[in-house]
Input
Amino acid sequence: MGFGYILTAPIPLILKEQNTMALVDDLALLERQLTNLITRYEQYFIGMEKREPLQLLGEVEKLVRRHAGTTINNTMLRHRFTMLTARLNTYREHWNRILRLMEEGRYSRDRFISDLRQRQRDSGALGREQGEQPSRDADIDRLFNELREARMTCHMPVESLTREMVAASIAKSTPALIARLGTDDLHFRVVVENGKPKIKAGTRK
Output
């Protein structure tokens, strides 16, 4: 006489897997919507969009709030969420500065287009020439915010971390990186390795 076995996972494990899959889906959606939001704001500032994309901004912020107050146990997913949140915060500060200039009547559409083209040509490289200053400043802001968020996620102190420290570290390492990699088209990003956040450099693909 044969016996049949029904293998079932414990309910907490099933719920954990379901929550993880839901988070993976939300992060993929957040990344797509954030990329679209950045494009929509650029189009708005150059006059291609007639209205500020507030509805899409609200949807992105809603996704962030959904997980901001929850504990994400998966290190990789927690780091991804932190990086996306830091990216949103960096761009939101950038957009708010431009919106204030528009309200004050000091906004130059031609200047924005020029800066946008510069960022597109060298969004990851921290240039040495004066004309690359807007791109360099945006990169430093992004790296500082991402590194700060990553250190907080890893329960490391952030009180002594400053934007100037990040900028000085990048400036010091850039010449050696250019010599070693054979190009000045560098891309800097924050990674977490062995539980420790750090800034890593590579070439743009």
In short: The first strand starts at residue 186 and ends at 193. The chain has six helices and two strands. Residues 13-203 form one domain. The mean pLDDT is 77.
